[in-house]
Amino acid sequence: MMTGDYTIVGQAARVGYLGGPGLPNFVQVYFDGSISFIQAPGFTDIQVLSVTKPATACNATNSFLSALICNKSPQNVNIANNNVTVNFNVNGPNGIQTSNFTMNTGTMAPCSCLNAAISGINFSASGKYIITANASIAG
């Protein structure tokens, strides 16, 4: 099964079949040609690999959170031209707290990661906290 953004390039030379597990017959695609897959121009894949919680659990009224943001694309991503915004959301006894971090300098090489950190999150009340982070890239 194919996933992602691809451009199909080929010449009429062979007959083939493309399908995937669990797909009904009407979804399967037949092609006539020699096919190769190339990456679509400008394709970027930014991933939040992990989120690091505060170092201390007691009376933390101004805590730091960080997220490891990775470039899963096979090419460099120029962050100065294509800013990466990381959105943090903390839901817990102190209510919903949100904060954003914008990465706007440098370049991320393929398979490299950068850290995005925020401060000012209140973890002072005891209880369960749900921390989420997502990243988006401009351009």
Q: Give helix and strand order, one letter per element, not per position.
A: EEEEEEEEEE
Terminal Cα separation, in Å?
28 Å
As residue ranges, the low-confidence spans are: 1-18
User: And the CATH topology of the largest domain?
Assistant: Immunoglobulin-like
Please estimate the helix content: under 10%
What's the architecture of the largest domain, going by CATH?
Sandwich
- Helix count? 0
Q: How many separate structural domains?
A: 2
How are the strands of the largest sheet arranged?
Answer: 3-4-9
- The CATH class label of the largest domain is Mainly Beta
The total of beta strands comes to 10
Overall average pLDDT: 78
CATH superfamily of the largest domain: Immunoglobulins
Morphology: elongated
Q: Please state roughly what percent of the residues sit in beta strands, choosing from under 5%, 5-15%, 15-25%, 25-35%, 35-45% or over 45%.
A: over 45%
Major sheet details = 3 strands, antiparallel
Features:
0% helix, 139 residues, Immunoglobulin-like, mainly beta, single chain
List the helices and strands and how they pair.
Blueprint: E1 6-18, E2 29-39, E3 46-52, E4 63-71, E5 77-78, E6 84-92, E7 95-103, E8 107-108, E9 113-121, E10 130-137
Antiparallel strand pairs: 1-2, 3-4, 4-9, 5-8, 6-7, 6-10
